[in-house]
Amino acid sequence: MAELRVRPAICADDRWYPSTPEELRRVVSGHIEGATALDPNGGVVGLIAPHAGYFFSAHVAGAGYRQVRGGDYDTVVLVGPDHTGAAMGELALPDYGAWRTPIGDVLVDGELAAALERRIALRHIRRDQEHSLEVQLPFLQVALGEFRLLPVMMGSQSPEAWRALGLAVADVVRERRALLVASTDLSHYRPDQDRHTLEYVLNFDAQGLADALRRGEAHACGGGPVAMLMVAARELGATQARMAKYATSGDVWPDRAQVVGYASVVLTRPQGTPA
After folding, report:
1. Domain carrying residue 245
2. Which member of 57, 58, 107, 137 has the lowest number of beta carbons within 10 Å of its beta carbon?
């Protein structure tokens, strides 16, 4: 039997997030429990969450994960941008059998990954330093407990890429109890753009968001994952996007001249829609 390749917790350095399981669980649980619960309508299909260091954005992420705490999900599809070039401009599948955090290991759903790869081309990555996927995992572990993971890194955020990935993801999880998560931060030093960005998200307008990002009228480092999420969630019956929380780094840090925006948004089905 081949040895299980485990991705190490490279961000558990007490800067991105706490390195000990006790402190990590305490911080994450505190942000989730301290957030306000929204009415999930017919259930949360997708979640948009920030990926900065926990000091800056964990309170925003916690508000999103509060909406899925204890949810009946067996699979999480986690999609984030490629900050380091590891994906070489392609859609990529980090080639691990499990992802480790101080809280424990999360197994990758190899069967689901293979099903996705039959529908769309994915580059396999053997090593990476990407934080946008990893920092979501402790929140998922605390909010959901046990689940299988399908992580995807978007080296390309072109309209062709996010649309094809969204349709493929919806296709492979249609018979699963799946939560879809898009990892993104918003504007970097231009908080005035966040209102425009979030208008497209809250209006469930993936193409409008992509066009605004291209024109420079909106900004999100994970704009492709967000557009992909809207495509997939709509295919799975979601019709509404609801804000869980918005903030900037200036809310916790005195430098308000160079702020980064963060938002948590949930995509939900109508009341009475079967999961």
Report:
1. 41-268
2. 107
